[in-house]
Amino acid sequence: MSLETRESQLRVEWTINAPTARVWESLTTPSHLAQWLGKLVSGEISSESSFAVDHGDGYQCDSTVVECEPFRALSYSWKFPDEPHTELSWNLLSSDNRTTLTLTHSGLSELLTSYRDGWPVHLTFLEASTLGTPLPWTMFWHFHSTIAYLNARDQ
């Protein structure tokens, strides 16, 4: 994993030992999405579509797809009711049955620390889902606390 922050942008590079098609499926298919991000409650993740994901207890993020190039790139808006509008992009690069996934989350400003701690946890859940061994959601905040502690210590 490689994680960079600058100004109001977070960039995470993550490699998963799975073909790009399987990683793409995890990013865009409702059953996989529910295992690493939240429940798709409306729309679909495809070209020029809008969708909403419930991250638990009705806390919903609304998004509109800006770019969708299957198996290569996906970008969409990211808007929770109590946060400013931000942009999220995923780029996938395949090599030897492995996929390097680069996540860029822009426009974070004061939310940078929160997302710096949260995305590695979501990516851990994404990888587990992609590999066919989804993690229980009850572990999410335990992992998050550990990542937040380690990040704070390294500052």
What does this structure look like?
The chain is an alpha+beta fold. It has a single domain, classed as 2-Layer Sandwich (Alpha-D-Glucose-1,6-Bisphosphate, Chain A, domain 4), CATH 3.30.530. It has helices at residues 20-28, 30-36, 112-130, 140-153; strands at residues 2-6, 9-16, 39-43, 50-54, 60-69, 73-78, 86-95, 98-106. A hairpin with a 6-residue loop joins strand 3 and strand 4 (50-54). Helix 1 crosses helix 2 (30-36), helix 1 packs across helix 3 (112-130) and helix 3 (112-130) packs across helix 4. It starts with a strand and ends with a helix. The model has no long low-confidence stretch (mean pLDDT 96).
What is the structure about, briefly put?
It contains four helices and eight strands. The protein is an alpha+beta fold and 155 residues long.
Topology overview:
Blueprint: E1 2-6, E2 9-16, H1 20-28, H2 30-36, E3 39-43, E4 50-54, E5 60-69, E6 73-78, E7 86-95, E8 98-106, H3 112-130, H4 140-153
Antiparallel strand pairs: 1-2, 2-8, 3-4, 4-5, 5-6, 6-7, 7-8
Helix pairs in contact: 1-2, 1-3, 2-3, 3-4
Shape: globular
> Can you tell me the CATH superfamily?
START domain
SS content category: alpha+beta
Mean pLDDT: 96
DSSP helical segment count: 4
* Number of DSSP E strands: 8
CATH architecture: 2-Layer Sandwich
Q: Describe the largest sheet.
A: 8 strands, antiparallel
The CATH topology is Alpha-D-Glucose-1,6-Bisphosphate, Chain A, domain 4
Classify the helix fraction into a percent range. Answer: 25-40%
SSE ordering = EEHHEEEEEEHH
Gap between N and C termini: 17 Å
Radius of gyration: 15 Å
* Unreliable stretches: none
The first-level CATH class is given as Alpha Beta
Total individual domains:
1
